[in-house]
Specification:
This protein is α+β, with helices and mostly antiparallel strands and about 475 residues long. The chain has 13 helices and 15 strands. It has three domains: about 180 residues, 2-Layer Sandwich (Beta-Lactamase); about 110 residues; about 140 residues, Alpha-Beta Plaits (2-Layer Sandwich), CATH 3.30.70. Helix 1 runs antiparallel to helix 6.
Length: about 475
């Protein structure tokens, strides 16, 4: 073979590698463009669900305190009670609230005396003069809001993120008599922010309506940097936006905080690295091509995994409410067969278990119910957890199969033995297309709910237990 032919062959091989690499890079770019939006929205949904979950508990605790008759009566009678007795009452009450809820702190401020009570006793008197630290009180009262939330770092608590909830206390005539509140750690959100930023190379922040960063894993950015040129909406939607050729963001309004979740992705870093490898050494083209194919598989795999995770209830491993609503939307326009069955199920006595045995026992009861429902009906369709102790099923089974499955469920729940509970019951209702051939899935759901509530009512009448 002549030198000219050899050179030509080498040139063809090198050109082939270079062209194949460029084609692969181009293909990867197209695939990234298609998947980056879905990936970003899945990440944002996962983060949003956790934030809402961690915010709901302290809000519920604080609002419950604000409507507690004992607390309202105590504040109304503060002047007649006496300072020492009042301080002891407040300390005992707030200690109980703190321990029952697992919050880090709990407090009450009397509007009449401006005394600030904590679980440790009388803390101070609110000073609202100009420049005073306690001006938060007058700002909150004058806002007219029922409650407000704020997320801040607790320097004394290991620099952990903590959500603080302030709530108005009003007497029976809707007159302001004080403010109560709690502070609870947001450990799950903080850990997830750090983990996802490392895993996916994204940046996650919470900003106010002006774009000022309020929560971020980089403390130097908090209340110092603004995220500008973002489209923000107070609707329940995820907004995807490309900032430039390399960066994109997904935003979502967090109504409890009146802030916005921002997930920023940089899609260009990987492409730049691949191009640098190509320019450095043509021989690495084969390796780069293999790496790219693996990267595509990893991206697709992670996208599917995140999409799956956003549809699964982590506590019971059943499909969650989001998955349920999407399934209903699909079936809303579908022709339902005669064996199509809409199942509704609800635990009996969960509140009593929580109140007497604790929430750990209640959680065990919920997980046990999920296991029994899946074992009884899972072969005929999908079981969903759509609320705290509420379940639903989209099934396809005959009347005989339904009777057998219900009997099996009753046997399993009656004989269940866990670490903290022994036996429980579930009220069920169902409606089929066989009974109601002209009804759509929404109407079948309504009928199923009615039947479930009838079964629940009969259970409580039979047992004499209180709901």
């Amino acid at each position: 073979m002549s030198k000219r032919t050899t050179k030509l062959a080498i040139a063809i091989v090198i050109l082939s590698f270079v062209l194949s690499t460029f084609v692969s890079l181009w293909s990867l770019q197209l695939m990234i463009q298609r998947n980056v939006q879905e990936l970003s929205k899945s990440l944002a949904a996962r983060i949003y669900d956790l934030i809402r979950s961690e915010l709901s508990e302290p809000v519920n605790v604080s609002r419950s305190m604000a409507h507690d008759t004992f607390l309202i009566d105590a504040l109304e009678k503060e002047e007649q009670t006496g300072p020492e007795q009042m301080e002891q009452q407040m300390a005992d009450y707030l200690t109980g609230q703190k321990e029952a809820s697992g919050c880090e702190t709990a407090f009450v401020v009397s509007d009449a005396s401006k005394l600030y009570y904590s679980y440790a006793g009388l803390n101070k008197r609110i000073e609202e003069a100009a420049g005073a630290h306690d001006q938060w009180y007058s700002r909150f009262v004058s806002s007219g809001e029922e409650y407000v939330l704020d997320v801040d770092r607790d320097e004394l608590g290991g620099d952990q993120w903590t959500v603080f909830v302030n709530t108005r206390i009003e007497d029976h005539n809707a007159r302001l008599i004080g403010v109560c509140g709690v502070g609870a750690r947001m450990t799950g959100s903080q850990d997830m922010f750090v983990s996802l930023e490392k895993e996916y190379g994204v940046r996650i922040s919470l900003i106010d309506s002006d774009g000022l960063i309020q929560v971020d894993t980089n403390e130097s950015r908090i209340r110092k940097e603004y995220l500008k040129d973002l489209r923000l909406s107070q609707k329940n939607e995820y907004i995807y936006q490309k900032l430039d050729a390399e960066r994109c963001v997904v935003t979502r309004y967090v109504d409890g905080l009146d802030w916005y979740l921002v997930v920023e992705s940089d899609a260009g870093e990987g492409r730049r690295q691949l191009l640098n490898l190509l320019l450095m050494n043509v021989v690495m083209c084969v390796g780069v091509l293999i790496i790219m194919l693996l990267a595509v598989r990893i991206i697709i795999s992670r996208t599917r995994a995140l999409s799956h995770a956003s549809f699964v209830d982590q506590s019971t491993q059943l499909q969650n409410r989001r998955s349920f609503e999407e399934k209903k939307a699909v079936l809303a326009s579908a022709q339902l067969t005669g064996d199509f069955t809409y199942l509704t199920a609800d635990l009996n006595g969960l509140k009593q278990v929580n109140d007497t045995l604790g929430h750990a026992a209640g959680d065990e009861m919920i997980k046990a119910a999920a296991s029994c429902l899946k074992a009884s009906f899972g072969a005929f369709g999908m079981i969903y957890r759509i609320g705290g102790d509420e379940f639903a099923g989209i099934l396809n089974l005959t009347s005989a199969q339904m009777d057998s499955a219900v009997n099996r469920l009753e046997e399993m729940t009656a004989g269940w033995e866990g670490q903290q509970i022994k036996g429980f019951t579930i009220s069920c209702g169902w409606a089929t297309s066989r009974e109601f051939p002209s009804e759509n899935i929404s109407e079948l759901g309504r009928i199923s709910d009615e039947r479930m509530y009838e079964a629940k009512k009969a259970y409580y009448q039979k047992t004499g237990l209180r709901r």
